[in-house]
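Loading example: each entry is read as two labelled lines plus one structure line.
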Amino acid sequence: MERRTRVRFAPSPTGPLHMGGVRTALYNYLYAKQKGGDFIIRIEDTDSQRFVPGAEAYIIEALNWCGIIPDEGVDENGKVVEVASDKHPHAPYRQSQRKPIYRKYAEELVQKGYAYYAFDTAEELGKIRAEMEANKQTFIYNYSTRGSLRNSLSLPAEEVARLLEERSDWTIRFKMPEDRTVKMDDLIRGHVEVNTSTLDDKVLWKRADELPTYHLANIVDDHLMEITEVIRGEEWLPSLPLHYLLYEAFGWQETMPRFAHLSLLLKPDGKGKLSKRDGDRLGFPVFPLKWVNAEGEVSRGYREDGYFPEAFVNMLAMLGWNPGDDRELFTMDELIQAFSLERVVMHGAKFNPEKAKWYNKEYLRKKSDHELTKLFKPVLKQHGLTVHCPKCAEKCGVEYRPEPDFATGYFPKAYVQKVVSLIKERATFVADFWDIASYLFVAPKEYVEKDVAKFWKSENVELALQVAEFIKDFADKCGKDGFTKETLEGPLEEYIRGNEWPMGKVMNCLRLALVGASSGLGIADIVTLLGRDEFASRIDAAVANLGK
RNA sequence: GGUGGGUUCGUAUAACGGUUAGUACUCAAGAUUUUCAUUCUUGCAAUAGGGGUUCGAUUCCCCUACCCACUACCA
């Protein structure tokens, strides 16, 4: 019978979710949605030692920002579900709250002879391990050593009963069989075989805190939650045989999920997996959202750095997966359509921060002027400017004026939108808008030295001032509404060419006065945006500052 | 050390066993533009090495090298 597709993302709340983790969640989500199935969140917090407050909320918020919305495990308010309901039948979704479930499964395995009680302390084992390593030997807790260690297989029954009673630090270990070849299939890597003699008797359950370890909790919960595919990081591949054997021991082979192991995200330079340090070192975020740890150390996030979530998700999707053709730009829906595990590459992908920026640039261009204006407004406010549309002016109890006022730093929203439409092709982030276009809001305070030396020469200045006079006259003639780029452009060019003046030199002279540098929009754009008076005042200021 | 996985331009990747080994990012050059940016065009640049199998190997097999992961009462 065909089972409904159910996949899960099962993070451990030990810190902020790494972008590699986001990619794993994304692939799970894409897979589930394509199959019309469920994407479930489960919190694997069985290690009380490493629990970090706030990490769980961070993970959920990060996924939400990315548009990776769980069907199950997290409610509408972004809280992990603790009480079962129709929509969340397997609650609680936090393993620490599922504590009572696991012990009986662990005991069941002991009963069936697949597991046993072990009484060695971590210290004892550490000592043995150190001794053997000193002799260049490898300690491995399995068939070769378990007979001489303290456990229910080596000790008399009475003593086992006594130790179980008296001590509270024993564990239940899986009895890894000797010399068996486990044959496994991975959705990405194909067939994999491992001989069990190289594996160890993993701890499944700890009496000390009455919690399972990852392996047991994972298998039990995936079974109980009817997971059909497990899509997880490559670091789990070595424990896949254990997981296969566990399903077998429980007699759950029939419904065992299929597995897919994703390669890791690697550092942009050098070797090894991408870590927080690399971001600090190379200057890019490693986390989706900003994170401040207990020591007050801040890690930047893609959101706070100005990335659009769509761009971030698109970039992440293409890191280790491709559609088989040359397409690179995908909406979430398109990703859902196109995604397939078969096209996920096996090898690790070095993260390329430049490409991440390129994606953001592409998405910024796709945004409407209106939306970008909304995003730019707060930046302008930060620089002490006010921006109003008729509606919001009314709301604030301010009089709306349709003309920009450079003296007081007031700008109608329509003006800002016009600016945005002209500069958005030049930017990667909304935050770039200010660097690119501040001169359209405040007069230049200084002039780039190099450009002054190149263009502010008296013979050019003389001509530029004549052109300025022409523009002022033209503006007076046209009136406010007639003074536009379209009306000015032709006559302006004609005027300069008619006089046979050097276009580049004259224009850059003007640009220097208006912008403070020899870069920026076309003169006709700048002048008509600024308006006749602001234009005139900047020309005067330049002459006053730089001379003729 | 052991076990498992991996290896195509600098990076991400494409190529039913037959291609001048493609595309994108980056970089460089040129064109356009009143400057800058954009845009367009062009260029640079790869099958880790060695053996097989085959008429033919980036593709299949073996060996070596290198990289990664795992090797906890962590996930």
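The longest helix of chain A spans residues 458-482.
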